[in-house]
Amino acid sequence: MELLTIVPVAGLASIIVAIYLYFYVKKQESGSPKMREIADAIKIGANAYLKRQYKTLAIFVGVMSIILAIFLNINVALAYLLGSASSALAGFFGMASALKTNVRTANAAKKGLNNAFPIAFYGGAVMGLSIVGLALIGISVLYYIYGDLNVILGFSFGASALALFAKAGGGIYTKTADIGADLVGKVELGIPEDDPRNPAVIADNVGDNVGDVAGMGSDLIDSYIASIVAAMILGTVAYGATGAMLPLLLGALGIIASIVGMFFVKVKGNNPGAALNRGTFSTCFIFAALALALVYFLGINLNVFYATLAGLVAGIVIGITTDFFTSIDRGPVKKTAESAKTGAAITILSGFSYGIISAVPPIIGISVATIVAWSFAGVFGIAISAVGMLSVVGMIISADAYGPIVDNSRGIAEQAKLGKAVLDITDKLDAAGNTAKAVTKGFAIGAAALTVLALFAAYAEIVDIKILDLMNPYVIVGVFIGAMMPPVLSALLILSVGKNAFRMVEEVRRQFKETKGLVQGKAKPDYARCVDIAAKGALKELMLPSILSIAVTIAVGLTLGKYALGGYLGGSIFTGIIFALFMANAGGTWDNAKKYIESGKFGGKGSEAHKAAVVGDTVGDPFKDTAGPSINTLITVMSLTASMFAPLIVAYALMV
Amino acid sequence: MELLTIVPVAGLASIIVAIYLYFYVKKQESGSPKMREIADAIKIGANAYLKRQYKTLAIFVGVMSIILAIFLNINVALAYLLGSASSALAGFFGMASALKTNVRTANAAKKGLNNAFPIAFYGGAVMGLSIVGLALIGISVLYYIYGDLNVILGFSFGASALALFAKAGGGIYTKTADIGADLVGKVELGIPEDDPRNPAVIADNVGDNVGDVAGMGSDLIDSYIASIVAAMILGTVAYGATGAMLPLLLGALGIIASIVGMFFVKVKGNNPGAALNRGTFSTCFIFAALALALVYFLGINLNVFYATLAGLVAGIVIGITTDFFTSIDRGPVKKTAESAKTGAAITILSGFSYGIISAVPPIIGISVATIVAWSFAGVFGIAISAVGMLSVVGMIISADAYGPIVDNSRGIAEQAKLGKAVLDITDKLDAAGNTAKAVTKGFAIGAAALTVLALFAAYAEIVDIKILDLMNPYVIVGVFIGAMMPPVLSALLILSVGKNAFRMVEEVRRQFKETKGLVQGKAKPDYARCVDIAAKGALKELMLPSILSIAVTIAVGLTLGKYALGGYLGGSIFTGIIFALFMANAGGTWDNAKKYIESGKFGGKGSEAHKAAVVGDTVGDPFKDTAGPSINTLITVMSLTASMFAPLIVAYALMV
Question: What is the ipTM of this complex?
Answer without folding.
Answer: 0.93
